[in-house]
Specification:
The complex is a heterotrimer of chains A (about 300), B (about 525) and C (about 300).
Chain A lengths: L1 H28 L3 H5 L6 H10 L6 H13 L13 H36 L4 H15 L2 H15 L11 H31 L2 H8 L4 H31 L1 H6 L5 H10 L3 H29 L1 H4 L3
Chain B lengths: L3 H24 L4 H5 L3 E6 L20 H7 L4 E4 L2 E6 L2 E6 L5 E6 L13 H9 L6 H7 E8 L2 E6 L6 H6 L12 H14 L7 E7 L3 E6 L11 E6 L3 H10 L4 E2 L7 H6 L4 E13 L13 H10 L2 H9 L4 E2 L21 H11 L5 E2 L2 E4 L4 H12 L3 E2 L7 H10 L8 E7 L5 H8 L14 H12 L3 H17 L3 E13 L32
Helix pairs in contact in B: 10-12, 16-17
Chain C lengths: L14 H15 L2 H15 L1 H4 L38 H37 L1 H16 L2 H12 L3 H28 L2 H8 L4 H37 L11 H7 L1 H6 L3 H28 L7
Classes of the chains: A mainly alpha (about 300), B alpha+beta (about 525), C mainly alpha (about 300).
Chain lengths: ~300, ~525, ~300
């Protein structure tokens, strides 16, 4: 087991190195951030001064080494735009993104699981198609459009909810719905197939023979077993949502990490983009590692895999 | 009947009482702001926030940071209302010497920073000498020294006559050394710390700063003018549809940049006043026109382009008619900008000119590149040019790439191309020329380079005679317009929305400063219940 | 009759004729609605030049901008579904947009599938260092938020429909690599593969004759599910300003450009392209679901 864990940790480290190198290069290929930080009437001397201030006049390898040295010490650089350490900005926004992500995950579960159950229990009937349709709608509508329609209907039209920004629970509802519905489809699929498997198994047939009503059979046996992969998926999705819900955050002016990244990209704020992507990568790789280890505990065969 | 002595006694008592009263009143802390300020105003800003905008010391030279630092800081002289640069603010007296080799400024009495420290000439000197933002090199190069004359007066001494000093110094969207920052505090927290928690001498002090999200301000009761609204909150809302929803729901009292498609809707909202502030100038550039093989080398072709453009239709469609089809590509709110009549539209004459120039069937333009993100007007230009036979394709690109390509000069715009550019530059016509026309300019690079005009511009810069300068300015601008080196299109309206809670008999009540599209001076905005 | 069975436990001999017969069988049993929608859209895309009344990139002469659909006040039959901000006919743009959306969706999926399948096979079959490196790169790629990566690439190489296709392909290949690798790993242990290796067949031959046909099932299922994602991603890229460049008609771009009009009451500018996107994505998703169940029960849990 420990060999497995060590191997997996090693993999994660290598992945993070590749990730940091990739984002470092990608960001620099998009061009010169200095031209964006000074406009209209700036002179070449102004640009050079700014370039030097940020160490952008050094060669890329030198910049990369400096960057990695600092990263290993936990310093991910200082944002050009906000003049704050990137880690500080990231953690400032993290609670907001976590809140949105959790709410959206909840919604994806609330839509996906019941739909999956209905779909599996009433397989191949009209109910199956309706349930699938509802969950799939989330995949078939671009998030920005859904978000704006929600604002139009619930905020401007019905005046039930505030339009945007962070605040109390009422501010979270619409962005969470717009974000979470997208992931409901995968929840549905997983729930449905797991349930179908369990429903067709010998165990269930026995339970039915025993005379237990269908409802009990479903609730107690099928549902429980189907949930593990679903929650795993939910966890993985949550991490993605926390770090990459760019469009929803822009539409709803939600002060999250996705928006931080979005603005960083368009402002060519190298340190910010690098730092956020690495922190996000850290989180994603970390969660995957955790899930892998947990699964290895549960299923011994996995420990032997490469 | 009482005796005269009694009357005299009463009279003396009255005088004494009056004197005492006056003395008592004059000793009261004079806090007009604290007494009157109430209510809350929310501004929905149309993009992200950059923290450097809260620090006038690192002014980036764009017409953007002034929206922010004008709330927190104040300047010695500044642009306000219809005054382009010489409105006395922190200074109660400002004078350029007749030979323009020095400028003397006297501070008002009793000025304070938000932390209670007084505003001193030492702060003024520090602000000037420590200034690192746009045009810092100009100030440094031309200033001999900064003298503190007495406890309220500062003199700037220049190496040679510095005619542009008042404009550079006093225009908030050009440079920032007039915006006084507290030396002690600035050094204590450092430049980066200052951008998180700035302290200034302006009408509002910072309460909370969430970088990139929200800036919360509160009226400063030590400000020398009355501040009406107690709480001023600026939120970043990049999505236009969401901003309009906020206006409709009353979540925002002021909303910037209503896009063309929503102007009509906003104007119909109950209690909402539309504020169509004339803003950036949009114009057509012909990179590579100096090349004899380029169709735009021929002045007639450039004139044909001008005749083909339907400025009124563009204005109507893009800004619901609230912009202004222009004569001069340089805005009229800068020094020495000349007036020019609106260019006519004449499709037949355009075609004729093209025939004369040797293009009876028109010609192909590789790309028309509009300023991001104003793609829809680029599309209209493409359609309008097609009518006279000039066939082109729209090229869109993300803003960062666009700015970078501009920096790269001609080689980034090979072949036959048109750039549909836009700019808003404050202060002086010369900053427009310097940035967008002069060979080597930040925007123009090597794409223009008209030698004789550049030569005249050098003369202008070297000249110390205002009359001669004005004459040269006019000649140069005329040269550009008569030769169609740049074809002005229209002056776009930065359309903003004023919500029902704001007191605005007309929109200019909230947007009185003509040199900007933003709602400052902030202290003058009133809410309806005040 | 040697058809390709749903269960890939059996070796695939005479792959070609079996494949044809399988396709015919599939078509007869396929779900009606998704296929009808997809078929219809493909037809529209192919016949766009004949069907569309106007040029989708030019304003209609003398038509007002923001003209509503013909059944509303102010609409006209000449522009039956209305006009947009530039005065272009919406119906024509929708028709030509089918072409763009289908090309972007299908080609993007092909690029993603091609890269992902190739890497998956390489990783799974060759193993060793190659496998480790590819897997780490895949992990790193997965940790990069897809949209972010797409913005960077689009900003670098500039917007054009073909660049977008490549970008979307580069972003979405990771889905394939992982899954295909898993398939290949289990295939490698099968008797028929081992027999071929013992018989001296070169690695390339084994891949071509035995591995590839068997992973194609999985790849096809994945592809049908990815098409929808790619089409939505095109809309997202347009929202971020780095999608298919105007004035080309693409449904995602139309939806994104018309965002402000949602608040202004001109619903037709967003609803029509939105419904089109909805239809095509739903159709491919449902079709993919059905395909998955029929072709390969192993991938049911995707």
């Amino acid at each position: 087991m420990s060999a497995f864990i060590i191997r997996r940790v090693l993999y994660s480290v290598v992945t993070l190195f590749i990730l940091s190198g990739t984002i470092f290069l990608v960001v620099r290929f998009t061009g010169d951030p200095v031209a964006l930080m000074a406009e209209a009437s700036a002179r070449p001397e102004d640009l050079e001064r700014v370039r030097h201030q940020w160490g952008l006049d050094r060669s890329w390898p030198v910049q990369y080494v400096t960057f990695m040295q600092n990263a290993l010490r936990g310093e991910l650089g200082k944002s050009f735009n906000y003049r704050l350490p990137v880690s500080e900005l990231y953690f400032q926004r993290l609670p907001n993104s976590l809140l949105l992500g959790l709410a959206a995950t909840l919604i994806s579960l609330l839509i996906g699981i019941p739909a999956g159950i209905v779909s599996a229990v009433k397989v191949n009937t009209a109910w199956d198609h309706v349930a699938k349709g509802v969950a799939l709608l989330g995949l078939s509508i671009p998030g920005f459009w859904l978000g704006l329609v929600l604002i139009l209907v619930f905020s401007v039209g019905l005046r039930w909810l505030p339009t945007s920004g962070a605040g109390d629970w009422r501010h979270v509802v619409m962005p969470a719905l717009a974000l979470g519905w997208y992931f409901a489809a995968s929840m549905l699929r997983l729930t449905r197939s797991s349930m179908l498997e369990v429903l067709g198994s010998e165990y269930i047939k026995l339970a039915r023979l025993k005379g237990l009503p269908d409802f009990v059979v479903i609730a107690m046996h099928a549902f429980k077993n189907a949930l593990i992969p679903v929650f795993t998926l939910a966890g993985v999705n949550l991490v993605v949502m926390v770090n990459a819900a760019v469009i929803i955050e822009v539409i709803f002016a939600w002060p999250g990490i996705g928006r931080l990244l979005y603005e960083g990209i368009f402002q060519r704020d190298f340190p910010l983009v690098q730092g956020v992507v690495i922190m996000a990568g850290f989180m994603i790789v970390g969660v995957n590692l955790f899930v892998d280890i947990v699964y290895a505990f549960i299923d011994p065969r996995i420990r032997l895999s490469r | 009947m009482r005796s005269p002595r009694f009357a005299a006694h009463i009279f003396k008592m009255a005088i004494l009482g009056l004197l005492l009263l006056v003395a008592a009143v004059s000793l009261l802390p004079f806090s007009p702001a604290g007494a009157a300020a109430k209510g809350k105003l929310t501004l929905a800003w149309h993009a992200g926030f950059a923290s450097r905008w809260l620090d006038p010391q690192e002014h980036d030279g764009t017409a953007t940071p002034d929206n922010f630092f004008t709330a927190i800081h104040d300047a010695l002289i500044k642009n306000q209302g219809t005054e382009l640069y010489n409105h006395l603010a922190l200074a109660e007296h400002f004078a350029m010497a007749p030979d323009a080799k020095s400028a003397t400024i006297t501070l008002r009495k009793g000025l304070k920073f938000h932390n209670g420290d007084p505003v001193t000439p030492q702060d003024v000197k520090f602000t000037y000498e420590n200034y690192r933002g746009a045009k810092a090199d100009v100030f440094k190069k031309r200033t001999e020294r900064v003298e503190i004359v007495n406890d309220r007066t500062v003199r700037f001494v220049f190496k040679e006559p510095f005619l542009d000093f008042p404009i550079l110094f006093g225009t908030a969207n050009v440079a920032g050394p007039a915006w006084v920052v507290p030396e002690k505090y600035y050094k204590q927290v450092g430049a980066d710390g200052f951008k998180q928690k700035p302290i200034g001498a302006g009408p509002y002090k910072l309460v909370n700063h969430e970088p990139g999200v929200k800036i919360e301000l509160e009226a400063f009761d030590g400000y020398y003018r009355p501040v009406n609204v107690k709480q001023l909150v600026m939120v970043s809302v990049p999505e236009a549809a969401t901003r309009v929803a906020m206006l409709e729901r009353g979540e925002a009292d002021l909303v910037y940049f209503v896009p063309g498609e929503l102007i009509n809707k906003v104007s119909k909202l109950p209690g909402v006043v539309v504020a169509p502030v004339l803003s950036g100038s949009f114009f057509v550039e012909f990179p590579g026109f100096q090349d004899p093989k380029n169709p735009f080398h021929d002045k007639r072709v450039r004139e044909a382009v001008s005749l083909a453009i339907d400025r009124r239709a563009m204005n109507q469609a893009e800004t619901a008619g609230m912009g202004k089809p222009t004569g001069n590509w340089i805005n009229d709110d800068v020094q020495y900008a000349i007036d020019w009549p609106e260019f006519p539209r004449n499709v037949e004459k355009a075609k004729q000119l093209l025939r004369e120039a040797g293009y009876p069937n028109g010609f192909d333009v590789d790309w028309v590149t509009p300023l991001p993100t104003f793609y829809s007007r680029g599309e209209r230009l493409v359609a309008q040019l097609r009518e006279v036979g000039i066939r082109s394709k729209l090229q869109t690109m993300e803003r960062g790439i666009f700015l970078q390509r501009l920096q790269g000069g001609l080689k980034e715009f090979p072949g036959t191309q048109i750039i549909f550019h836009g700019a808003r530059i404050g202060g002086s016509w010369s900053f427009w020329y310097e940035g967008h026309f002069k060979c080597g300019g930040f925007n123009s690079r090597d794409r223009v380079c008209v030698k004789d005009l550049d030569g005249k511009f050098d003369q202008y810069e070297r000249s110390v005679n205002p009359a001669e300068r004005k004459k040269l300015a006019e000649e140069i601008q005329r040269g550009i317009l008569e030769n169609y080196y740049i074809v002005p299109v229209f002056r776009h309206a930065f359309v903003n929305g004023i919500g029902p809670r704001v007191a605005a008999a007309k929109w200019q009540d909230v947007f009185p400063t003509i040199t900007t599209g933003y709602a400052y001076p902030w202290e003058d905005i009133k809410l309806k219940d005040q | 009759m040697a058809t390709i069975p749903a269960d890939s436990r059996f070796p695939s001999r005479r792959a070609t004729s079996g494949a044809l017969r399988a396709i015919v069988k599939l078509t007869r049993e396929a779900p009606l609605a998704p296929v009808a929608i997809l078929g219809g859209l493909i037809l529209v895309a192919l016949l766009a030049d004949l069907l569309a009344p106007y040029d989708p990139t030019l304003p209609v002469k003398d038509a007002p901008i923001f003209s509503p659909p013909f059944w509303m006040d102010g609409g006209s039959l000449g522009t039956p579904l209305g006009t947009d901000f530039q005065g272009r006919d919406i119906l024509s743009r929708l028709i030509y947009g089918a072409r763009v959306s289908l090309i972007v969706g299908l080609m993007g999926t092909l690029v993603a599938g091609g890269i992902g399948t190739a890497l998956g096979i390489l990783s799974g079959y060759v193993g060793g260092w190659v496998d480790q490196i590819i897997m780490r790169v895949t992990d790193a790629w997965l940790a990069l938020p897809a949209i972010v990566f797409a913005i960077f690439l689009a900003a670098m190489v500039g917007p054009s429909m073909w660049n977008i296709i490549v970008i979307l392909g580069l972003v979405y290949w990771t889905r394939y690599a992982r899954v295909i690798r898993g398939e290949v790993l289990s295939l490698r242990e099968r008797d028929f593969v081992k027999l071929a290796e013992i018989a001296g067949a070169s690695k390339l031959r084994v891949i071509r004759k035995h591995i590839l046909p068997n992973v194609l099932n999985t790849a096809t299922v994945l592809a049908s599910l990815t098409v929808g994602v790619v089409i939505i991603a095109e809309a997202s890229l347009s929202f971020l300003g780095v999608g298919v460049p105007p004035p080309q008609p693409a449904w995602g771009l139309m939806l994104s450009e018309a965002r402000p009009t949602l608040m202004a009451g001109q619903w037709w500018l967003t609803v029509f392209p939105g419904v089109c996107i909805l239809l095509i994505v739903l159709a491919t998703q449902l079709f993919g679901d059905w395909l998955r169940v029929r072709l390969d029960p192993q991938t049911r849990n995707l």
